[in-house]
UniProtKB/TrEMBL annotation:
It comes from Culex quinquefasciatus. Belongs to the SINA (Seven in absentia) family. Pathway: Protein modification; protein ubiquitination. GO terms for molecular function: ubiquitin conjugating enzyme binding; ubiquitin protein ligase activity; zinc ion binding. Keywords: Membrane, Metal-binding, Transmembrane, Transmembrane helix, Ubl conjugation pathway, Zinc, Zinc-finger. Residues 41-104 form the SIAH-type domain. The SBD domain (substrate-binding domain) mediates the interaction with substrate proteins. It is related to the TRAF family. It comes from the Eukaryota. This is E3 ubiquitin-protein ligase. The gene is 6032360.
Length: 241
């Protein structure tokens, strides 16, 4: 582990809250005590001000901000997605350094990437990869669900929802046989890491493919795919071809 990351971790643990809900409750109490009866129209500094956040919001906006604040307490997203067993705790903007330095994720994917993922009909599998696109950092996430007989793929943006939705990706699954022209193509918006990713998968707001369909495209027991991360020029709806 680098000295820089060790210092960041130590600093992040200062005044560490039990969870985001506790932090929000602490913030609400402080504002109500400061200006009784006027909390609804009062702006206050983010509870993470001491860690570097300079934003100020009213109560309704603050609740949303606390979900996205880059200085908020953060646990390893690999653990959250149940891909990695990791007890790391830090601040949101440290997650990329943590994934690079503390986990062996292999090559960093680019905005245009061809690769493959393992497949099994009897065992649920999953994986994550860092993605560098437009000088921004994303996370490629794949998971298969044996019970549902479905495989899910999504590209996650590290940051605010508003920024995440400025990007989308085209995702292809195609046969490795050059004579076989069949392919499945998806176009989906990137999602933010503060989104409810489990709900997105349940509602198929991502690339969602049945095992039955995937079996037509397997190559040596692997799923060959290609994706391109793009910036939204005009409103792009999710679609499948």
């Amino acid at each position: 582990m680098s000295r820089r990351l060790a210092k960041l971790r130590a600093k992040a643990k200062e005044n560490w809250p039990d969870d985001d809900q506790q932090m929000h409750q602490q913030w609400t109490v402080k504002v109500e005590k400061a200006i009784p009866g006027s909390v609804k129209c009062t702006k206050a500094a983010c509870p993470h001000k001491k860690k570097g956040c300079t934003w100020m919001f009213g109560p309704a906006e603050m609740e949303l901000h606390l979900q996205e604040c880059k200085f908020r307490p953060y646990r390893c997203i690999g653990s959250k997605l149940k891909i990695l067993s990791c007890g790391w705790q830090g601040i949101h903007h440290q997650i990329e350094d943590h994934l690079r330095e503390d986990h062996e994720l292999g090559e960093v994917f680019s905005h245009y990437q061809e690769s493959w993922m393992p497949f099994s009909e009897s065992k649920s599998l999953g994986g994550i990869k860092l993605v560098n696109a437009f000088s921004k950092h994303f996370l490629f996430y794949y998971v298969s669900n044996v019970s549902a007989k479905m495989a899910y793929f999504m590209i996650i943006y590290f940051g605010r929802r508003e920024d995440a939705y400025q990007y989308y990706y085209e995702f292809d699954i195609r046969s490795k046989d050059e004579k076989d022209l069949r392919r499945i193509k998806f176009v989906e918006h990137c999602v933010a890491d503060c989104d409810n990713l489990a709900a997105n998968m349940a509602q198929e707001k991502c690339v969602a493919v049945s095992f039955k369909m995937l079996k037509h495209y397997l190559h040596d027991g692997k799923i060959p795919f290609r994706f391109i991360v793009k910036k939204v020029g005009k409103r792009t709806s999710s679609s499948r071809e």
